[in-house]
C-alpha cells in the first residue's frame, strides 16, 4: 500500500497503516504530536502502536527541536545481522547446546559481564575509536557518572523485554546470526534524566501531553541532551557489535569443522535522532520504532520469536522521511498477553524454535504481535525484501 493521509493540527499525518486498525489511544498520540509548534512532518509505520508520549512506529521531523520521549528510553536500540557460510545442513538436530553456549557467552536480562569485555581480544573487532568513545563519558550528565562501572560491564549484554539473539536460516538454506538490543541501563538513565529536565522547561508547559516536552535549538539543555543522546546511540552500536563478535566466537567453536565465514554486518538503529534535510529544511528526524530506509540502504525488520524476520533494502521514499517499520509491532500490551496466553500457547506458537517456553516470556508470544508478512506488505513502497529469515534458535532475556 501507499500511505493514507490523515488531517493533523500542524501537519498531515502520513500513515502506512490502516487508520481503522490503529488503537484509539495511539491515534490520539499521533494527533498530539501533530500539534507541536516545531513539527514539519509525521510519518506512521505499519507496526504503529501506543507508546509513552509518542507512538512506537512513528517518524517525527522537527525544525530546531527534539522530543526525548519520542526517542524513547532505550536510546539507539536496533538490530544487527550477519549472513554466514554455514547452511542448514551444518546445523545439528538438537540445538539446545548451541543455545546454551550463546547464553553463556552473552549475559541476558539484568545480567552483565563479570569484567568489562576487552574488544582487543575479540576476533576482527574494529577497536579504533573505542578509547575516544569511553573518553567522552566524562562529558555526559553528572547524574549518571556513578554508573560508569555498570556501563562498562553491561557493554556486550542483551537485556530483556523484546531483545533477542537468534540463529536463523533463509529461504536458500543459509544460516544467519541476528540480534536486537540497545543502550542498556545507561541509555535508560540518560533518557529519564533529560525527559525530567525537558518537562520543567517553560516553553513546554502548554503542551497537550507533558511527555511530548522538547528541547529547542541554541539552548544549553538542547546541547547537553544532544551530547548525551549521540553518546548513548554510539554505546548501543558498540553493544551490538560486541555481542555479534561474541556470537561469532561461539559459532566458530561450535562449527569448527565447517570453518564458518561471516559476511559484513548489517546494522541499524530504530530508536534514535538524525540530522537530515528535506524540502530545503535541515530537520531533526526522530525515529521511534522505525529504521532509516534510504535508497539502497540495508535494514532489518524482525517479526516475533516464532514467525521470522526480513532483511530489506530501502527505496528512499521522502514521503516517509526515508523510513520503514522496525518490526511487526505489538497488537496487545504485555499485561494483556500474559492474561490471554499460557505457556502451552507459547509452546505451540514457537514449535520448531529452540527457545525459552516458560511463563517469563509469555508476553513475547507471537500472538501478541501483528503478522510480520502483513506489515511488510504495507510498506512495499518503502523497502524491497532481500531475504526472509526463520529463526531456529532464539535467546531471550
Automatic annotation (TrEMBL):
List where this protein forms a coiled coil: none
Q: What is its EC number?
A: 6.5.1.8
Q: Would I find Transmembrane helix among this entry's keywords?
A: no
- Give the cofactors, semicolon-separated: Mn(2+)
Please give the start and end residues of each transmembrane region.
none
Mention any Pfam family matching this sequence. Answer: RtcB
Lineage: superkingdom: Bacteria
The protein's annotated catalytic reaction(s) are:
a 3'-end 3'-phospho-ribonucleotide-RNA + a 5'-end dephospho-ribonucleoside-RNA + GTP = a ribonucleotidyl-ribonucleotide-RNA + GMP + diphosphate
SUPFAM superfamilies named in the record: Hypothetical protein PH1602
Please give the InterPro entries that the UniProt record associates with this protein.
RtcB, RtcB-like, RtcB-like_sf
What does the UniProt keyword field contain? Answer: GTP-binding, Ligase, Manganese, Metal-binding, Nucleotide-binding, RNA repair
**Listed PANTHER family:** RNA-SPLICING LIGASE RTCB
Name the record gives this protein: 3'-phosphate/5'-hydroxy nucleic acid ligase
Source taxonomy lineage? Answer: Bacteria, Bacillati, Actinomycetota, Actinomycetes, Kitasatosporales
Amino acid at each position: 500500500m501507499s500511505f493514507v493521509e490523515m488531517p493533523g493540527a500542524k501537519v498531515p499525518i502520513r500513515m502506512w497503516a490502516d487508520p481503522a486498525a490503529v488503537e484509539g489511544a495511539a491515534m490520539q498520540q499521533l494527533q498530539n504530536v501533530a500539534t507541536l509548534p516545531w513539527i514539519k512532518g509525521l510519518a506512521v509505520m505499519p507496526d504503529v502502536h501506543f507508546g509513552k508520549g509518542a507512538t512506537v512506529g512513528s517518524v517525527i521531523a522537527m525544525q530546531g527541536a527534539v522530543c526525548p520521549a519520542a526517542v524513547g528510553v532505550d536510546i539507539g536500540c536496533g538490530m544487527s545481522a550477519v549472513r554466514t557460510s554455514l547452511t542448514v545442513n551444518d546445523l545439528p538436530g538438537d540445538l539446545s547446546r548451541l543455545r546454551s553456549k550463546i547464553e553463556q557467552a552473552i549475559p541476558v536480562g539484568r545480567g552483565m559481564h563479570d569484567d568489562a569485555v576487552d574488544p582487543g581480544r575479540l576476533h576482527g573487532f574494529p577497536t579504533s575509536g573505542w578509547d575516544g568513545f569511553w573518553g567522552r563519558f566524562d562529558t555526559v550528565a553528572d547524574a549518571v557518572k556513578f554508573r560508569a562501572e555498570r556501563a562498562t560491564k553491561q557493554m556486550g549484554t542483551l537485556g530483556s523485554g523484546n531483545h533477542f539473539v537468534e540463529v536463523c536460516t533463509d529461504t536458500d538454506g543459509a544460516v544467519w546470526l541476528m540480534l536486537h538490543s540497545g543502550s542498556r541501563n545507561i541509555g535508560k538513565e540518560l533518557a529519564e534524566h533529560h525527559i525530567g529536565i525537558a518537562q520543567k522547561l517553560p516553553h513546554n508547559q502548554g503542551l497537550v501531553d507533558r511527555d511530548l516536552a522538547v528541547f529547542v535549538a541554541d539552548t544549553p539543555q538542547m546541547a547537553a541532551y544532544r551530547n548525551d543522546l549521540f553518546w548513548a546511540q554510539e554505546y548501543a552500536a558498540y553493544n551490538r557489535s560486541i555481542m555479534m563478535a561474541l556470537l561469532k566466537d561461539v559459532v566458530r567453536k561450535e562449527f569448527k569443522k565447517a570453518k564458518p565465514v561471516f559476511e559484513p554486518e548489517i546494522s541499524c538503529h530504530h530508536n534514535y535522532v538524525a540530522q537530515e534535510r528535506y524540502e530545503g529544511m535541515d530537520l531533526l528526524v526522530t525515529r521511534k520504532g522505525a529504521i532509516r530506509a534510504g535508497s539502497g540502504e540495508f535494514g532489518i525488520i524482525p517479526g516475533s520469536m516464532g514467525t521470522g524476520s526480513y532483511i530489506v533494502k530501502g527505496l528512499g521514499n521522502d514521503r516517509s522521511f526515508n523510513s520503514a517499520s522496525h518490526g511487526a509491532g505489538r497488537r496487545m500490551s504485555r499485561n494483556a498477553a500474559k492474561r490471554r496466553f499460557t505457556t502451552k500457547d507459547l509452546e505451540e506458537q514457537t514449535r520448531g524454535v529452540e527457545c525459552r517456553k516458560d511463563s517469563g516470556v509469555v508476553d513475547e508470544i507471537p500472538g501478541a504481535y501483528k503478522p510480520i508478512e502483513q506489515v511488510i506488505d504495507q510498506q512495499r513502497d518503502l523497502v524491497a525484501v532481500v531475504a526472509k529469515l526463520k529463526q531456529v534458535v532464539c535467546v531471550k532475556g
